[in-house]
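Troubleshooting entry. Yesterday's outputs looked truncated, so today I'm pasting the complete records for two proteins to confirm everything comes through intact. If either block looks cut off, that's the bug. Protein one:
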Amino acid sequence: MILNKNNSGNNQKRGKQFEDEFAEYLHGRGFWVYQFPNKVEGQPCDIIAVKSGEVRFIDCKTLADNLTFPLERVEVNQEMLHEALFRVGCGDSYYYAISCDDGVRMVPVAKLMGAKYAGEKSINLGESPII
């Protein structure tokens, strides 16, 4: 899946466009999708998607030019959601959908947090699946 790679506008506009397109992509594949309407300070994720009894919390990110994702882009509120989901046994239900030059990669937040807690500054997305 490669979404519209129109790079016009600012980063926030591109990010919102990706969120909209990804929500449509999920809906077209049979998910019930709730997309948070506006970026709100402290918002834990961008999309909640449900299908076949499984809930996915998804944060959409755009990445320009390469496959290196800086872990500083994981926001404190997103760390808090991951920790809360982990405590209740749902740590594997939170993903980042990252729009890269070669497509969209789904990355479990647990992988990002593991690298961050290990002191890494970034991760290479080359091994993350393209959808």
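Protein two, checking that the full record survives here as well:
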Amino acid sequence: MPAWQMRAAGEGALKAKQASGGRTEASVSGGNGMTQQIEAVQRMQDYIEQNLAGEITPAGLARAALFSPWYAYRLFRRHTGLTPADYIRRLRLSRSALRLRDEGCRITDVAFELGFGSVDG
């Protein structure tokens, strides 16, 4: 299973788009363009993982994707079904929930450690 599909199963946020017959878009198109797009989305996801506690900007995601901010946003949304902001929010919320469940931390501590600007969301 490709890393981007495993990430989808593990995080529950990446919705790998499926074409008929259970094949992914990459295998349906067979082109290098699709592979480059998927790799760009993976780089953006890696960038988000590494910078989850800090500020993640469209420019930073674009640098990770090696595309313009506008095109990086479109790629991310096309391949995940989420905007980058929604993906980041869901990832932060799921990480926060796990830390609160497993470590018994204070809500405010977890919120600020995972990059939320306030406890209000």
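Both blocks look complete. Sanity check on protein two: Residues 1-30 have pLDDT under 50 and may be disordered.
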